[in-house]
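Support request from a user on the community tier.

User writes: "When I paste my structure tokens into the form, the page sometimes reloads and wipes my input. The last time it worked, I copied everything first. Here is what I submitted, just in case something in the input itself triggers the reload:"
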């Protein structure tokens, strides 16, 4: 069992990583002291694989529960789905003594966590992530929320989970594309905090979906330490987790949700951030090439489609919450394993960098 502790005072929690952990979820949740009725929130892709196993584990230790299934995909990260889920929970008899279990990938975690943050003005929740993106990144840190037509994750709340249960065996059911897109977040962590991880990632077979628990734990430990230092992104440290996300989110929001998977858009954003890092932070070109080669190794895109206009991407960027107060802050690398922030990039260069992604 790999265990990572997130130290946030009264909101502290454990991240447990081990194959077969899903079957133990009931007893692991019970050990946190959570009582009351559980509301399982999952999507129609994940439910056929894992819902019955989770329900059985809850029954074994005496929990009562209701299960709520929404349509899979980024389009479900909406206020309409949030309202539907809240009404379903009310109709199922949930109250302020209940808790939510998010079973699924990043969309499910963000959506279910947001539901938990507002249902009866806030109830506890547990994350059971089932994708690479969610296991190494989004299930940790308490960011919850939904998208608006104007951009990604613009509506939400900070709401830390009580527990994160990560079973790497759940990755075995993922389609290859959805499995590999998550490695954009793994590469991001290596780029900003752990240069030695590059060697491990280069050695992995991207077709082998048996991901070592140690690699997942190593990634969540990076995020946990950053979250502990800057839980609500006020000091600037947590902003380092946005490496590749500033332009990446703009690209993702410029096409219908689901056209590009999150990690695919972030891969393009990382290429843009590397270009800016060479120009503004002194990153060596061979360091950029190593990271680009890793993205290619995991079959992540590096070339932006001509069908996505630069003007539209910039329009989405200007609405991005990372540009609050008019500050166009980018996360760059001055060397592998060391992320820094930079807010002095001329606006015109942002457009040129987006155009560069088409080359």
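"...and here is what came back when it finally went through:"
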């Amino acid at each position: 069992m790999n265990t990572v502790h997130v130290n946030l005072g009264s909101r502290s929690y454990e991240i447990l990583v081990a194959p077969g952990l899903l079957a133990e979820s009931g007893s692991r949740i019970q050990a946190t002291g959570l009582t009351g009725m559980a509301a399982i929130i999952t999507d129609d892709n994940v439910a056929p694989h894992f819902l019955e196993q989770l329900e059985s584990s809850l029954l074994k230790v005496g929990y009562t529960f209701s299960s709520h299934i929404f349509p899979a995909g980024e389009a479900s990260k909406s206020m309409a789905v949030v309202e539907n889920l809240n009404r379903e929970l009310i109709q199922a008899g949930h109250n302020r003594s209940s808790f939510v279990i998010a079973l699924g990938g990043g969309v499910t975690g963000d959506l279910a966590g947001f539901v938990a943050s507002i249902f009866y003005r806030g109830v506890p929740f547990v994350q059971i992530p089932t994708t690479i993106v969610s296991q190494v990144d989004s299930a940790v840190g308490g960011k919850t929320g939904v998208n608006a037509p104007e951009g990604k994750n613009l509506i939400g709340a900070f709401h830390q989970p009580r527990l994160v249960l990560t079973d790497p065996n759940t990755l075995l059911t993922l389609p290859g594309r959805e499995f590999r897109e998550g490695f954009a977040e793994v590469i991001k962590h290596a780029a900003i905090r752990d240069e030695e991880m590059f060697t491990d990632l280069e050695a992995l077979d991207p077709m082998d979906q048996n991901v070592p628990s140690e690699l997942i734990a190593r990634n969540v430990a990076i995020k946990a330490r950053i979250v502990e230092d800057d839980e609500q992104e006020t000091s600037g440290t947590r902003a380092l987790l946005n490496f590749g996300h500033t332009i990446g989110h703009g690209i993702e929001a410029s096409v219908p949700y689901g056209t590009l998977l999150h990690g695919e858009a972030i891969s393009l954003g990382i290429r843009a951030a590397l270009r800016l890092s060479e120009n503004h932070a002194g990153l060596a070109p061979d360091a950029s090439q190593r990271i680009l080669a890793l993205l290619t190794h995991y079959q992540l895109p590096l070339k932006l489609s001509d069908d996505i206009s630069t003007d539209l991407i910039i329009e989405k960027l200007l609405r991005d919450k990372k540009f609050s107060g008019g500050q166009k802050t980018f996360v760059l690398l001055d060397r592998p394993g060391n992320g820094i922030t930079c807010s002095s990039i001329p606006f015109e260069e942002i457009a040129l960098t987006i155009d560069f992604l088409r080359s």
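Agent notes: The reload is a front-end session timeout and is unrelated to the input. The chain has a mean pLDDT of 95. The chain has 14 helices and eleven strands. Escalated to web team.
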